[in-house]
Design a protein that fits this description.
globular, Lysozyme-like, 2 domains, alpha/beta
């Protein structure tokens, strides 16, 4: 790990990790929810050798934080997916699990602890707010965590994530989605639906219906201000 362990973090090692491939350094943070009935149950699974899953950190509803994998190591949290040109997300990211079933809000003590943890990680590895994503952003075909109840706007207000500004003219939604980081194939109606779903899950969680000009305008703003290739350390 780079530097001392964050204050108040409980060391609880997982056997499921390895070296980051190709000498990669973390330049992404990926947020998840556990979808389990308790933080303790999630901790047990994330440290179970037979499960072959892990994350760097787990944050419980009461604000307790466990570290399972050193930050310089490759945890097994992201799986198949991509963000921009990054396909091996595990080698380029730090994974944070939030104890939540996916059906209830994230309590204030948990969000406060998450913010403090993220500030330290982002400072240690020089990770900008636009490189903080959800599991659903990089794997919309199979994941929807941290889900519609996660308060992304709160993180953005603290400089820990990004949020689209209103007032920009609508653009080409799918071209802008690619510029922002979503993996949208050139021709695929189902993929187009997935990119809209991932975008709304994070930025318009209660929106319904087909793609509209609000979606187009907000995505155009994200693409204009935070194009993934400008900020990523991609080769």
């Amino acid at each position: 790990m780079v530097g001392p362990q964050p204050p108040g973090v409980i060391d609880h090692p997982s056997p499921s990790f390895g070296e980051r491939r190709g000498g990669a350094r973390p330049d992404l943070i990926v947020l998840h929810y556990t979808a389990m009935h308790s933080a303790e149950a999630a901790l047990e699974r994330l440290c179970d050798r037979s499960a072959e899953v892990s994350a760097h950190y787990l944050v419980c509803e009461r604000g307790r934080v466990w570290q399972m994998v050193p930050e310089e190591a490759r945890a097994w949290h992201a799986g198949a997916g991509r963000w921009g040109r990054v396909e091996d997300v595990n080698s380029r990211s730090i994974g944070i699990e939030l104890a939540n079933t996916g059906a209830h809000p994230f309590p204030d003590p948990q969000m406060v602890a998450l913010a403090a943890l993220m500030r330290g990680i982002m400072a240690r590895w020089n990770i900008p707010p636009q490189r903080v994503i959800g599991h659903s952003d990089m794997a919309p075909h199979r994941k929807h965590d941290p889900g519609p109840r996660f308060d992304w706007r709160r993180l953005a207000r603290q400089g820990l994530s990004v949020w689209p500004a209103e007032g920009r003219a609508p653009g080409d939604f799918h071209a802008d989605a690619r510029r922002f980081g979503y993996a949208v194939p050139d021709v695929s109606d189902s993929a187009d639906d997935l990119s809209l779903r991932a975008f709304r899950l994070r930025f318009r969680p209660w929106a319904t219906g087909p793609l509209d000009d609000t979606d187009r305008a907000l995505m155009a703003d994200l693409a204009a201000r935070f194009p993934v290739d400008r900020t990523a350390g991609d080769p």
